[in-house]
Structure formats: structure tokens, C-alpha cells
Amino acid sequence: MVTDFEHEIVVIGSGAAGGMAAWNLARQGAKVLMLDAGGRFSRADFWTHTLPHQARERRRRGEKPPPFVLPLEEHPYEWTSGRYFEWWRVWGIGGKTNIWGRVSLRLSPLNLTEAARDGWEIPWPIRYKELSFYYDKVEQLIGVNGGDDNLPWLPGSKYHQPPPKPRCGEVLLKRAAERRGIKVVPGRRAVRTQDLSGFPACHYCGACGKGCDTASFFNSADDLIPPAEKTGNLRIVENAVVARILVNDEGLANSVQYHERVSGKEHVVSAKRVVVAASAVDSTRILLNSKSRQHPNGIGNGSDVIGRYLCEQTRFHMLGFAPELMDKPTTNDDGISGSHIYIPRWVPQGGTKNFLRGYGMQLWGIGCQQHADFAPQLQGFGLDFKKAVKRRYPAIIALHPYGEVLPRKTNRITVDGKPDRYGVPTVRFDYDIGSNELKMMDEMYDKAEEILHEMKAEILPFRKRDHTGFGSAIHEHGTCRMGDDPHRSALNQYCQMHEVKNVFVVDGSSFPTSTEKNPTLTILANAWRASDYIAEVMKRGEV
Amino acid sequence: MQPTRRDALRRIAAAAAVPVGLVTIHSADDPLARAASAYAPQTFTESEFQLFQTLVEMIIPASETPGASAAGVHRIIDEYLSGNPDSWEYHDGGGDLARDANLLKRGMAMLVQEGFDEKGEEARVELLTEYSRASGTKRDFFELLKGLTCDSYYSTEEGLIQELGYVGNTYLPEFPGCEHEEHLNGD
Asked: How large is the average pLDDT for residues A150-164?
């Protein structure tokens, strides 16, 4: 079936990358057909202001919250035995931006050039000056709150909205960390603390992860898709699970195959140009499944780079209790849900541990939460135990270091999995961390413990080198990386395939390194930059 | 006076012209939620369920605030382990329900074999303490019992609101942050 909309570009995916590409192209006059694997989530259905016990009663009545997270049973995947990779997917308009963590950190010039300095794999083919122009635009468009810091590993911005004030535990942690020479800055989050473009400021209910019922944080489904649709240049086909990009005799993309999510009925839409933005792993799945005579290893994969170099961040949680806050009255610590402060990567790291790259620290879950997840780790049971939990509830301090994982050729996804319900091969993860990550984690543990000791905090038991699991950071990168050398990369600096000039891949799979930072701000900036290039070459008739 | 949620939503919508759907507020005092109708366990047998109720109350007993039994924790866990999607507790995908249910049943059977039912309160605490310090199945059973009880209890109104005093998930025009001089100006 070919739609009656005379589209010029097909965009696969509607999250940060796809939403940005579609919005930017549509507003410049391009006719965009968007295919998304899911449908729209209605704000009226969000359970933002439903407490856990209320949620339980609603479920007992047969109600369900919006099905943001794709269940494994609907679309299974595989992994190497003993090395489970937790793969989070949101199939629906807005993708993961419906429920994302909203941490919005700029990469620094040092991040972008680090591989050139340390020699491990390839650097980014973009310089900070080229990216910062787009960071400025993104921050103004979506509203990012943050401080006025400008540090070697965390560049400043002139466009931040005011950051929320720190909680009591964050004030105490900052003081202790800085006594140890570790700088703590206001966090940077895409949560609007001032009204912006018709979106109201946050009301600090702390329930962002359930979907925001006032559209107060950046969500592609609010910020990008509706304005794009208003141009009249965007049409969306919902519940379209893309399987493959098909090519002509010259090996250029000429159509996209998808299946209706529920019925499984197959469709093919014509595609003069394709922007792939289905989130790193799903995008890579599509590319690798797009085999043909012209591209036997998957579209654009003559270099055998696509699927490889999967990288993300290692992460763990270290918890303690600040003595000043024990037995204090409960306070409303929800805020913007998650850190109001951030510990950026600092110099020096590595020291005697001798590892490449580095780490930063996030500080989610400080103060009174909507749970007491720490409770089982306290000793005993009975009345004394119950009292011990209550004493400590206002005093919780939580550190979550994020360390960069090196890109390795052997860390990869393939499409060796059993076919899905549409008959399309599914993903198999083959991923592990190495000695570099373990050495880095040793230092991450030492530093986190050092901060808690300085606070004189009661520290919950931990085991060094425990981490939250592969994939749990939800920051997959590298599997369709950009670079200057077409033998070592799949894309050029504008995310255009070296081998297939009318295919662009603009999500996190295009990143050559994961860095220690959350990727979404960079995904948005990069997708904006890439789509400006697409609009330009379209006008010139080059693509 | 604190605005109600409906007030806040109307104000926000009027200011931002963002479409706001009608959302039904579900009160914890909803009679449906508090119905005293008998609950038929879905995972445990009746006798296991009664024992399980005793055990969760031992983990988190009543004090000035209700304990785990009054909070319905035994029912919450029974429903959770049944995997019935109509009553299934949200969880983040961890845990093997069948394995966990079997471990709890095995642990309770071991307790019964050691005369738990006949013992007085003090002796029961002694026996459960022994399990908490043992190794192998006894320890695994205890840790699972305690973990599920804590997670469930502190998600109830009795646990989260009455016992811990959670005051969030509300509407604030701005976030006040730390306002304590001793924290802001401390050494």
C-alpha cells in the first residue's frame, strides 16, 4: 500500500531523534511520512497523581496505566547466556521521551576528541563548535534548567532556566564532596521551571516517570510532533513496525517495509530518502535485516561496522543516611524527580587505577521518596526494625556514578534471534565489559564511599564491582557510528550513510562513544544538525 | 489553602492552553478499596495464607500505625505472586514469580515442621530470627519474605502515608528546597 500523501522523506521513529528530524524537516517544507511502531498515549490516561496504593486499587478494578514500556513477550529478543542485556523500548509516539530521566548534559570538546587522544577506536567527526550551535537552539526550544557552570567536562549554556533549589541531603552532600575537592553543580534537566511556548512550568509532583499530565518536561509527543503536524507537512502512520529498508538496483533506498503492529499485515511505502531514528538497537535491527544483493550484510554495512561497537555506561547505586537528617520530620522532597545536583567528571580521574575515559555522578533518590526501597537492607525485623526504617527515611543519600564503557568490536548486536511474530529476525545481544570498566568502577566505588564518609553517613553494605546490569542505564550507542573513515564507520558527520547516500541514521546508534553523560540532549542537537543538512542537500538536488 | 488537584489542573490549563483530560481521582477511602469481602488466596492455600499473614505481621508489626497485616500485605503479595494480570502489582520485571512462590511455601512448610504453629510469640520470634541468620533455603526464604513485605508495606497507605509520613505528589508553585539554616550554613 502506498499512501496518498506525496511524501519526500520517510522518518522511522518519533522519539527524540525522529521527532526532531520530522519537526525540522516539516517546518522547512519537506513532506515527511513518519512510521512509528506504536500509537499515541493520551495524557488523560496518565497516572501521574496516583499513589502506589491507589494504583493497586485501580488495577483491582481492571484499570491499567498507559503501556509505555514494550513487554518482552510482545517482541522477544535474545542475549548471550549469562550476559543478560536489559533492553527498554517504548513503542509509541514520543518514544522513550514519554518517561525519560530528563538529564540534559552537553558533551564537552574533551569528550568529542578523547578517542583521538587516547587512541581507543575513533573520535567523533564533529567538533564542539559545530554542535554547540545546536545545543543552544535545543535548550531554547525545549527548556532545560541548570546552573551557569562552565567546566572542562561540562560546558556552560546561556539558555538555562533556573534550576530547582537543592534538597537538604543535596546541600549536605555538596558540602562534603567539595571538602574532598569534588565539585558539585546544579543538575541540568529538560524540566521546565518557567512557562515556555505554552507549556506550563513543573509543579514538582515528582511523578515524571509515570508521564507528565501537564506537559512540563520535554516530550517529543508534545514539543515536536504537534507543531510538525500543524505545518501540514507531516503524516504519521501509527502502529507500523518497520522491518526493512528496501533498495533499487543501484543499492539506494527506495521503500520501507513495515507490518501493522496488531494484525501483522505487511505494507511497503515508497521512500526517496529515509531517516532512521527508531532508537539505537531497533534502528540497527532494521538496518541489519535490510539485506539485499547490493547489501548482503545489511544496508550500508559493507564495512561490517553496523551492529558492532555497542557501548553504554556502567552504573551502580551506593546508599547512606545523613546523620543530620535522621529522625527529622518528613519533607516534600519530590522536586523535579531525580537529582537537583550533579557531579561532573573531573580531573584527574584514573590515577593509579590507570583506566581510559571517565565517570560522572548522578544523585537520584535523595530525601523522602514514594517508597522505602532501602528497608530490606536494614538488619532485623519487628518493632525495632520498623522504627529503624522510619528514622532513616528522611535521611537517605544516594549516589549513582555513571562510567563510560569503551566501544569494542566484539560488543555487538546481531539479528540472529528467532523470527518475531512478523517473521522478521529479532535482536541478539553479545555484550560484556572489560578490565577498563572494572578498574574505573573500583575508583567510582572509592570516590562515592569517600563522599559518604566525609558526610559521616551510615553506609548501607555494598559489594565492589556490583553494577545495575547491562543495559540498565538505557543509553545504547555505537552500533551505526559516524566517522571520517568509511572503513571504520557507517555514517559521515551528518549521519548520512557512507555507502547509501539517501539513508540517514540520527539516533544514539550514530555516536562513536558513549561518554559518561546522558545522550538525549546530544541526540536532539545532532538530529537537528543532520536534518538541516538533509534539507540543504534536498534543496540542491543532491539527495 | 492548598489548591486541590482539579483547581491546579484548571489553572494550569487556562494559562497554557494545553489540553487537559478529565482524570478521575481515586481516593484511598473508596469503599471498593476497603471492602471487607473475603479474599480467596490465589497463590497460597488457605492455611498457608493464614500463616503468611502471621509472618508479614512479624516482619512489620502494628505500632502507633498499622502493621503489615492490617495493611493487607499478605493479600498484596499473594496477588503479586499469582501473576494474574487483572490484579498484578506493577513491578519492574525482576523476579521469577513461580520460583518465589515455591520458596515461600517451602519456607513456611519448614517452619510448620519445626512447630511454629504451636509456639508462643517469643518462641516464634526466636525461630524466625534463627532463619534470618541461617544459610541456604532458610535464609533465602527469610530474605524473600522480608523483601516482599517491606516493598509491599511501604507502598500502602498505612506504610507510605501513615507510617513514613510521605507528603509529596502534590502541587507546588515553586520548590522550596532546603530551608534549614543549620544545613545551608553548616561547616
From this structure: 98
